[in-house]
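> example.struct
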């Protein structure tokens, strides 16, 4: 981990919107804090009293997110600079987040990359890299934070998975396989740690209009704000798995049940 900066506000904004008043969380850790979806969630959670630890690999970009949240009324935003492929930094990230916030209500795991499958089809290293970022690092950090939450009385852990993890498709199977692993792991975590007062929620968005999908033709693209509202709702209801928008639950049910011999001929 290279750098850590701490910013705080003594003048919380007065214009808290309806979602801000709904937000229950106070101590919030975000991994992949510059993600567009993560930023939308952070803004909805932002209210006087909200304290953030923001983890990302660009100090400049994560600090910009921190300043934005302070303007919106957050009480403090600490920035941890880390490339989340680096396993040796994870202990430090968990420990420092706990030291800074003392009480952690919500951990959001949002980092991810979406490579072009056709470009990496013959590139084994790119496949490994895709799995490392979307799968292994997210899984490892989810487990470590889950244990930390359990050891401190509980809290919520939200993982951003994807509908892409519901079935291996030719156009997105490296990313989809990593998200499938994350989804399955989160399912086990949820069952294993519920008795320790840890609520694990899996979020499966369909395509969202963010830098990750920029320039890609995808059906039914939604916005980060729609995902953020669904996440806040899911947290309030203690949901296990949410599809965003909801119609993706039905769509993916159908996709999962298409016979393999037909599925193999589909172009997506
Ligand atoms: N957009 C979609 O259509 C969609 C659909 C379903 C699920 N999701 C999932 O939602 C999550 C957020 O995606 P998004 O759409 O908000 O994408 P985004 O705006 O492109 O954000 C991706 C984030 O991942 C971070 N990241 C990537 N590799 C990293 C690494 N090695 N170390 C630390 N941070 C790293 C990026 O950091 P930098 O800013 O430094 O690059 C960025 O903050 C991802 O897990 C994605 O798979 C997205």
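> example.seq
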């Amino acid at each position: 981990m290279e750098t850590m900066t701490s910013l705080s506000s003594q003048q919380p904004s007065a214009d808290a919107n309806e979602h801000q008043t709904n937000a229950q969380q106070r101590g919030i850790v975000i991994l992949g804090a510059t993600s567009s979806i993560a930023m939308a969630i952070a803004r909805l959670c932002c209210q006087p009293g909200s304290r953030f630890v923001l983890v990302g690999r660009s100090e400049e970009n994560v600090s910009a997110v921190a300043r934005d949240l302070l303007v919106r009324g957050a009480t403090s935003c600490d920035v941890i600079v880390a490339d989340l492929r680096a396993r040796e930094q994870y202990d430090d990230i968990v420990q420092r987040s706990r030291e800074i916030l003392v009480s952690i209500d919500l951990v959001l795991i949002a980092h991810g990359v979406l490579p072009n499958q056709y470009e990496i089809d013959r590139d084994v290293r790119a496949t490994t890299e895709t799995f490392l970022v979307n799968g292994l690092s997210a899984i490892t950090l989810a487990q470590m934070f889950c244990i930390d939450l359990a050891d401190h009385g509980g809290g919520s852990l939200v993982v951003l998975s994807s509908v892409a993890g519901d079935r291996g498709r030719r156009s997105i199977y490296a990313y989809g396989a990593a998200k499938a692993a994350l989804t399955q792991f989160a399912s086990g975590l949820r069952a294993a740690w519920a008795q320790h007062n840890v609520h694990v929620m899996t979020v499966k968005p369909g395509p969202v209009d963010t830098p990750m999908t920029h320039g890609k033709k995808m059906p039914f693209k939604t916005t980060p704000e729609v995902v953020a509202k669904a996440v806040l709702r899911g947290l309030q209801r203690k949901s296990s798995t949410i599809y965003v928008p909801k119609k993706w639950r039905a769509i993916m049910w159908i996709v999962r049940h298409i016979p393999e011999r037909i599925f193999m001929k589909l172009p997506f």
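> remarks
The chain has one domain: 4-263.
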